[in-house]
Amino acid sequence: MIRTSTQNDLIRYIYQETDTEENIEIQTAAILNGSLSHELRELEQTVMLITAAERVPSESTIDKILSYSKSYDLHSLK
């Protein structure tokens, strides 16, 4: 019997947090259910976009951190 996969199950599947039995259930359900297959593809694309997003602080953020660091008096901790 194939149980209904939730969005949480699909996310766990994408991040490889499901066991072999769950993988088989989700893969089978996706083959048999077009809307589930579509949702799985959309979630996979979303994860790819999130993973590919560049995570770099702006120049102004870096400047503020450096400025704060330079002005911080390390001797005041004693």
Question: Which structural class is indicated by helix and strand composition?
Answer: mainly alpha
Q: Which geometry do the CA atoms define?
A: elongated
Note the beta-strand portion. under 5%
Tell me the radius of gyration.
Answer: 23 Å
- SSE arrangement, N to C: HHHH
Distance between the termini: 67 Å
* Low-pLDDT runs: none
Overall mean pLDDT stands at 87
Largest sheet: none
Helices, by number, come to 4
Helix % is 55-70%
Question: How would you summarize the topology of this molecule?
Answer:
Layout: H1 7-14, H2 20-32, H3 34-52, H4 59-71
Helix pairs in contact: 1-3, 2-3
What does this structure look like?
With 78 residues, the chain is mostly helical. It has one domain (7-72). 68% of the residues lie in helices and 0% in strands. The chain has four helices and no strands. α1 (7-14) packs across α3 and α2 crosses α3 (34-52). The protein is elongated and about 65 Å long. The model has no long low-confidence stretch (mean pLDDT 87).
Summarize the structure.
By secondary structure, this protein is an all-alpha fold. The chain has one domain (7-72).
What keywords describe this structure?
mainly alpha, 78 residues
